[in-house]
Each structure stands twice: as structure tokens, then as C-alpha cells.
From TrEMBL:
Superkingdom field: Eukaryota
GO molecular function: ATP hydrolysis activity; ubiquitin-protein transferase activity
Species of the source: Amorphochlora amoebiformis
Name of protein: AAA+ ATPase domain-containing protein
Classification via InterPro entries: P-loop_NTPase (IPR027417), RNF213 (IPR031248)
Amino acid sequence: MDEMEQGDGKFSDFVAVFAKLICTSQEYVRAAYDGERSVVSLRDVARCVKVFRWFGEFFARTIGEKAPRPWKVADFFNVDERAREYVRKAMLMSLAYCYYARLDQKHRKGYGRALQKEYLSLQEPIEWVELGVWTTRRIPKYGPRCTWLDLNARMFGQTVDQVMRSFVRHVHLGPGIALNEALLENLFMIMVSIVNQIPIFVVGKPGTSKSLAMKLITSNMNGEASESPFFRNFPSVSLFSYQCSPLSTSSGIEQAFMKAHKYKQQSPNSIVIVLLDEVGLAEQSPHLPLKVLHKVLDEGGDYSLVGISNWALDPAKMNRAVHLFRAAPGVEDLSRTASGMVQNVQLDGFLRSIARAYDMVYNEQRQRDFWGLREFYSTVKHINIVLSKEKGRSLDAEVLMDAVQRNFGGKPEELAKVLDIFFTSIGLPLQGVKRKGVIELVGDNLKSTDSRQLMLLTKNGAALRLLFGATRLLAHKSTDVIYGSDFPSD
């Protein structure tokens, strides 16, 4: 009896398997959040089905119709043999989008195994049925289902990574930007969300490429004018950004949505995005501005919502949107990211040691998150720029001292410890290496066009005297000075 006669290829069997895997996903996420029931709901089920359908239509249009054995959307939903590879991909990516993306690294590994266990249980017969009195042959009443899915934990992880990369490889990143795991996931998840008008909250520490992902999406998704043919399959995007703060108000957030709605009416063929930047800060506002999100998230609109935050919002808001959680990267991921950023043979051998030193500094700093990923990336970039300008020069104590001083400032009482960690990790002698003074460091920053933006924190306007006084770091004729107000809360 062939597979189709057994019912293994019927869409109804696939739906039954898919439904079981969704139920398993719901329970797994609840368990990962200490049994909190509200972290998932029927909203997640609806989103999962919606995204599955979108993947099916997208695969049919961009791949199926151009395949050696062409297939269409109808073949996809009939689980035709020609389309099964992409039915599998669509199912796995829908589960990854709705459930896997919100988990931390430990629970992500367990999620793939949970799917595999549930799938294998569906291959076992529920009970056996005798064929007749005069024979000992038996058949399963409800036996193996959708064996062609061949689902296992390893294949799940490989498929998710492969499909994400097949989307993101079309993004023009620009020089000095490495496609690490964080940026890969951010780009893919936001891209799928805005195209389907599904609200998404991207949660991660500073430096986990959240804002960078939004910048790249808006610069690459230009509709028919897109540089990449891939993005010509999508409408152009327009961004309306609202910077949240502890002083945000409901009216301020509502105005951002009103502007987006008005623009959408004038440009119906474009994707309009409302970006709530640092949305977690708005939760600290006494005005409770995020209450307006309940209505917006429930009723939807003609725009897409992206929220960026350093920490998770309350469950009542989080379960109304897709949730991408980005944990702080480990030493291995930091090393790979740095390698993609610099592509410098002279520096390659030191990258793991620099990553290890940063990891120690980050975990041992007295004030949590005072230094973060941006300090690591900027340190690597600074060293790379110096070594690139002087061909053949390798990382030495002078270059390392300058890079650490320039990027790990703000805590003079901890500088000695930070320097000791970096020099010890990389294996360079610290004793006898000259440290630069504050004025010299500030001057170097102002002269360089590749430096980070400089923030000088002083009392009573001392910074102006430092910059324009005897040091002559800046000249009044070539500098614009903007004063902020002295009003409270400004």
C-alpha cells in the first residue's frame, strides 16, 4: 500500500500533526516561563497559522512556480509530493517564529527535542485492528502520520538557520557590519512581522543589533526600487519612530500611530512601520502611556508595530505580539562577530582573547550594564583601524592601551582592573605602558572621523572650558554649541 493510500499525504493528517506540535509548543513555553499560563494564548495559535499560510504562498510564488517540476499554492495546501519540502519548512518556520524565538538558549535546545518527541509519538499506532477471523494479519487503526516530515531536533535547528539565511543574505549590510546570530534573527523576525502586520517586541541588551536591524530593513526594502531583486517582491517601507522615555504620555504614542495611519491612507501600497524605541522605558512613566497599546494590539491597524526594549514588558502586552528574546552573546559568538567585522589577518589571532577579556569585564563590573556590547565592538573596530593604517603592524601594548582607554571610560576607579584583565587575557605586558590623560584622549576622539560620539560629564559647565580654553581642542568659529534648558525633567 503506497503512502497516499495510507493517508500519509493527506492534508487532514498534516493538520492533525501540526496541531499537536502547536499544543506541545504552547505547553513548552509555559513550562519555560515557570508555568505562567498567560505567556501564550490562542493569539499565538492564530499567528502561527497565519504565518504558515504566508510562507506557503511566498514559497509557491518565488520557488514553486520556477521549479523544474513546478507547483502552485494549491499543491502546497494539498501536500503534493512536489511541495512537501516547503510544507515542512513553512511549518517549522511558523513554530520557530511564534515560539522558539522567545526562548533563551537553554530552552531553545530543549524545544527542538520536545518537538521531536511529540512527532515520534504520533508515528506509533493507537491500536491494532484484526483483518479477519482466518488471518493473523493486523493493520494500525491510526498509524504513522506524515512520515515525510522526518522531524528531529537537529533538522529543526538546521532548517531554521537555513531559511533565515536564505532571506537575510539579500540584505546589503555595508562595511564593518558582521552578520552574527543576533542580527540574523532580528532581521528575519522583523521582516516577517512587518510584511504580515504582526506586532513584534524585540528584547535584548544594548548592542544586540536591534536598532541596526531596523536601519538595515528601512534602507533595503524599497519596493521596486530595491537594490536586491529579492526585496522587489515586497512593498517599500516607511518608518515612523517614537522615542519612549519615563516621561512618555499616551497622547504622544497615539500621535505616532495617527501619523502612520494618515501616511498609509496616502500611500496604500507601502508598508508603514511604527517603531517604539526603548519601549520598556515608557513603563516607568507615571502617565501609564502603554495602556493605549492594548487597543492597538488587539484591534490592529493598517501599519506594522515594532517595539524595541532592553527588557521584557508585562505579560499582558507581550502576549499580544510576537516576542524575540536576544540573550547576551557568549565568547564564541563574540569572536565570530569580531572576525566578520574586521577581516584583518594581523588581528585574527587576538579576537578570542579580546572577547574573553570583554566577557570578564562585563560580568565583573560594579554597575550592571554600564559597559556593554558597544564597548566591545568599538574596541575591536578601533584596533582594526589602527592596524589597517600601519600595514604589517600587529597588536601591541600601545595600541591595546589606547583602545581600552578610549572605550572603557567613565569609571576611573575601575580602569586599572579593566586594563589588567585585557592585558592578561591577550598576553601583553602592562607594566611601563604609558596611559594617556583625559585631555589627550578627548583630543584624539575629536580629530578622528572614525570615533564614537563623545560624551563628557562635568559639573558647572567645565566641559566648555576644557574644550575651548587653554587646551584649544575646539575653536568657537568652527563649532556650534547647543544649550539645553534648565527646566525640570528636560
